[in-house]
Known about the structure:
The complex is a heterodimer of chains A (79) and B (236).
Chain A: H1 3-17, H2 39-53, H3 59-64, H4 68-78
Chain B: E1 4-13, E2 16-26, H1 32-44, H2 51-56, H3 60-72, E3 85-90, E4 93-102, H4 110-121, H5 125-139, E5 149-156, H6 165-180, E6 186-192, H7 196-204, E7 208-214, H8 220-223, E8 228-235
Parallel strand pairs in B: 5-6
Antiparallel strand pairs in B: 1-2, 2-3, 3-4, 4-5, 6-8, 7-8
Helix pairs in contact in B: 1-3
Amino acid sequence: MERAVIINKLSDVFRKVFNNDEIELRDDLTANHIDNWDSLSHMILVTEIERTFCIKFKLKELNKMRNVGEMIEMIGQKV
Amino acid sequence: MGKSIVIHSRIQLPGEMTINDFVIREATSGDIPFLVDTIIQAEKSGTSILTYTTIFGLTEGETRNYLARMLEEEIDGCELSVSGFVLAEQEGSIAGSVGAWVEGSEGVPSNVLKGNLLSYVLPHSCLERAVKLNSIVRDLHIDYAQDKIQIGLVYVAPEARGKGLVSILIDYKISMLKRLYPKANEAFIQVFGNNIPAIRAYEKAGFEVILRKTASLPETIKYMPDTCKILMRKYI
């Protein structure tokens, strides 16, 4: 899957989970940049990403992802 | 094996002097059953409401099993980290525990680490319910201050209360973290407003109230122990 396609799909997931249509993904985006990114929102985010891309993360993979850029890269490796 | 220290706490009872010896030590994976109790009791905040059951639709028994599984993953840097807990033992029984971490010390926010554990361990059936109730959880959410010590979970067994154990455990844990992270100059603790005994205990430990957040949604009280969350701070 092309990176641009991943970003498009991932943007939809972020906007839905955080209920904010103005979210624009960039590689250095982290939980510190988005309001209400708490543990429950993160759980929902991860599960929605897994559903959207039909993938399943290992816990080690989840904990390695420090920002959206690393998330995109990880998704790219798994799809 | 973790380090341990013996702290002698004297209390005066009517007509007699009693000396209680608490052995304070770091938690290990063998302590997970007690840590699960700590998390359950701390989450209930003196009420019968457990957010893991109200938000995820789990029974208390299921919650215990999932909490144990999350603790067994031994992920550092969040409230579900075995390495974050210290325990007090008295005559071979665990009398209390405190869990704490420095926010962001693992390079990832603690909320992300906890969210990773929740998504990895909890069944997807929990998600449907959680999505609907996310606004309730957000209603009382207070961010963790970056690079500061966060006291996450505190529990003292009923028979060990009134002996200053909360202060002993918190001070011990703060000292441990301060040695590892000398720049962490403040410690924070979040507590539900209904938990007056806990608030008093934290005040005795040197914390002061700096923020009260009140729920804006009327249904919050159905899912949370209280409609007010308090943030307390101690300079260290």
